Amino acid sequence: MKIREIRGLSPDLLQKELDEERRALLNLRFRLTTLQLKDVTEISKTRRSIARIETVMREREIAGKQAQQ
Fold this sequence. Notes:
Blueprint: H1 3-7, H2 11-33, H3 41-68
Helix pairs in contact: 2-3
């Protein structure tokens, strides 16, 4: 998922997407361990996606705190 798409999501959808990506990462790790994973780059792509989502969530948290001050 691209960063522009992520920034367009609501907080609830962001959390849902984060949970799905974490679940996908867990499944990819299991598939890697059992030698069923063909494309190992999927793991790094999923990790980057998780990082993007967490970054947007953190940006919004900081912006919310600054708006309160």
